[in-house]
Amino acid sequence: MSMMSRFVRVAVLGVTLLLGAARLATAADGVVATYANPLDVIVADPFVLRHGDTYYLYGTSAKDGFHVWTSKNLVDWKDQGYCFQKSDGDYGRRKFWAPEVFERDGKFYLHYSAVGRGTSHRIVLAVADSPLGPFREKKAPWFESDKAIIDSNVFKDDDGQLYLYYVLDCSENGDSEIYVRKISTDVTIIEKSDSFCVKPSQKWEGDQWNEAPYVFKRGKTYFLTYSANCYVDTNYNIGYARASSPLGPWTKSTANPLVCNNKDVSGPGHNSVVDSPDGKELFLVYHFHQQLTGGTQRHLGIDRMRVIEEPGKAPTLAFDQPTITSQPLPSGAKPLPAGVSDEFTGDDDDKLGDQWRIFNADKTSWKLSGGWLSIRTQDGDVFRERDDLQNLFLQHAPAGDYSVTTRLDFNPTENYQNAQLCVWEDHNNYLKIAIVHDNGLHLEIAREERIDYKKRLFPAGQQRYLRITKIGDSFSFAASVDGKQWNTLDVTFQASFNEPKIGIGAASPGTDKSTEARFDFVHIDPITARASR
Q1: Cα–Cα distance, 8 to 24 (Å, whole number)
Q2: How many distinct structural domains can be found in the chain?
Q3: Helix, coil or strand: residue 455
Q4: Does a structural domain hold residue 157?
Q5: Which of 29, 249, 439, 520 is 20 to 30 A from 533 (CA-CA)?
Q6: Are 400 and 525 in contact (CB under 8 A)?
Q7: Is 0.90 surpassed by the pTM of this model?
Q8: Is residue 481 one of the residues assigned to a domain?
Q9: Are both 323 and 379 inside the same structural domain?
Q10: CATH number for the domain including 414?
C-alpha cells in the first residue's frame, strides 16, 4: 500500500464496469493502515494523556469547559462529551484555555487557565476519579499571582517530584515568558519560589511570545518545547530548549524552529508529546490553522518526532515537517477496518458509535430506532470557514472503486436545511450529494477544496435515494425515487483524497428551526472491472 494514497487505480477505457447483482455485506476486503492530517477533531492547544491502553485528548474546545476524546491508536478519536463544564459556583467564568491532566495517587487532576469574576487569566486545578471526569474544582486559582497566567504543563520526574511550567502572559507582562516551580506532595500548594525558563530571544520568535510549554525527559536530558509568535499568525511555530535539570538553566536549540509552517500547513503549534501504542515511536501532537491565512480556527495534527543521540554531543530533536499526506499508522496500532454497509437495525446507540466516527458529536440529537438512524438538524455547517456541523457519521472508505448508497426520509422547509451523503477527507475537503431546501426542494451536488466551494442544484421531486460512485479520481452522482430506476445527474467531480471516509449527516445552517433526517441504510458496494469483448 502506497504511503501517498490508498486508492487502487482502475483504468476505465476498454473495460465494462459490473455492479454485483446482490449487495455485499462488507465494502472491502482490506483494512486501512495509514492516516492523514488534519484528524477529525476541532480543537486547539491539544494535550494527550496515555493511561493504560487508551489515549485521552483534551484541548481548548468549548466556551464553558472542556471535552475529552479517546483513542486506541492516536488517529481515530471518539468524543466522550464534557469532562468539565462550569457550574454557577465555579471560579472560571469564560475563556477556558489549554487543559492538561496528570495522575497522582489514583486521582486525576485537570489544570487549565480561565478568567474569573473580574480578573484576568489564572490557573485552576480540578480533580476526578477518572480521566473522563467529571472534574470538579479543587483549588482556584491554583496559586496566587498579580499577573495573567496561561498555558500550564505538569512534568513528573523520575523521583516522583512534580513541576509546574506556566506562562506569564504578555497581556500583563509585556512579553510572554515561561517559568517553573515545584509542586508540593498534596498538589494543592505550589511552592512560592519559581525559576525562569525562557523568553523570546531568537529572531524567528519575534519579540513577544514564548508560550505553550511542554517538558519531557530522555536519558539525562530534559526537553522543553514551546511555541512562538501570535497564535493566529501563520508563523506560529514550535522551538525547543534543553537542560540537565527540570529547573534549568535552559539552552535553546540553534536549529530552531523545530516545527514550522509550509505551503500546506499554517501555524503548527501548542504541542504535547506522546509515545506510539508500542512505545517505539514518539509523536508530536499539535494544532494548526484550518486556513492557510492563519486565524483562530484550528484542528488536530500528529506527526513523528525523533530524539537523536550521538556520542560526545548533546541530544537533539528531529522533526521533518507537518504533513497532510498519507502516513503509516503509529507503530503498534491495529489497522483500521474499511467501511461496511449498515442497515441501522437494533437500538444499540453505543454499538453504532463504535462502528462510525462522529464528527462534532452531540449524542442528544441522534438515535437509532426501528431500522433508521435519525439525526435532528442543528445550526451548523462545514461550508467554507464554518466547522460546527454536528453529528456527521464517518467510516473509512474502502480501497479501490465503489458506490455508496443511502435512502433518506427528509422533508426540509427552511433555507438551508439539508441531509447529505458525502465522501470526506476533512472539513475543508469533501464532496457530497444532499437534499436541501434552497428556495425550494433541491438536490445539491457540491465539492469543497479548502474554501473553494462549487455546487450544482437539481430538482429533487420525490427522489430520496442518493448515490455516489467513485471510479479512479472521478466521482459521479445519482438519485432515485424507488432505488431501482436511477437518474444520473449531469455533474462529475475530480478529487484525489488522501484518507477518504464515507459520511452521512444533516444540518440547519442559519436557522434555529430543527427537523429530522432519517437514514434507512448505507450500502457500500465495491466495483469490479473486466475487459470488454
Answers
A1: 19
A2: 2
A3: strand
A4: yes
A5: 29
A6: no
A7: yes
A8: yes
A9: no
A10: 2.60.120.200
